[in-house]
User: What shape does this take?
Amino acid sequence: MLENVTIIIPAHNRPERLARLLEYYRGSGAQILVPDSSVEPFTGLTDEDTGVVYRHLPRMHFFLKLREVMGLIDRKYVLWVADDDFAIDEGIAACAEFLDANPDYSCAQGHYLTFTPRRHDIQFTPRYIRNHDCRITDSTAQERLRRQTGMYASMLYGLTRADIFRRIYSYVFNPDGTLRFTNLFLAEEFFNHAMLICGKYATLPVFFSARERIAGSATETTVPASVIKNSEQYRPEYEGFIRALTLLLSDTSGMPATQAEELMRRLSHAPADKPSIIFKRRVNALLNSTPLLRWAARLSEWRYHSKGLRAVRHLPSYPCTTPTPARTRLESLIRKTT
Assistant: This one.
């Protein structure tokens, strides 16, 4: 099913999740690359994992371990899959078919769920529902970049063309091989901008990914991008981020570097979502960080879950409550690690 796809799993200190994910893709036909920055090497590979290339790269940064496997990509399309997520094989195949038919698109993905294993069941919640039908189809890079303002839908885990994937990540490195920036939130933002610089983007009405909610994940311990962008302490980091995007935009579109830099600075400071949504996220972060207000945080999460279910109840690409074959298969694998 996925013979034209390379899946990169940037594993890190979650061997039980990695084993679960490798089991999910076993027999899919995809090329699987596992750059693993865990302290201890993974020992769960079996004789059936013939399509898996594993590299133990202890404590290596996200971008650096990507560089270690970049030259091994030998398929037409490529995507990241975090070791605690599942990119659904049927959804990946649908996106590959779409990209085959639309060569001016650089990236495609479908609909997302988050899942939370509980004592007696697994709760599925729809994700990115405000932009479930997002498409950015303008003809120039400048127009596509401007179009994304206020309609955030992360493209980091979408399916993209391997040649574009290789090209955009080359701009993360200085000529001497050092990294221009390292922050993981900036990495996600870089990928979003880079995909739109290189082509059009589509969200397809297919079940594409299920992402596990895990307390203490990297996103909870990483310096927020807003701090990076506005603090003198992180100025070199931010300047490296802008430099990477400026060069990519200028080289791709022919725009003068000064104009490209001005555009990227303006866009990087534009809100990624509506002010009301940003405010709600800040309130929820405050509630979660205050022990006496955790009850309010749980109530907010319940309201978000219920509202999401109502919003997608007529969309089969969000199988939150429907026992589809894809969801049943996921539940079986998830229960093995809970």
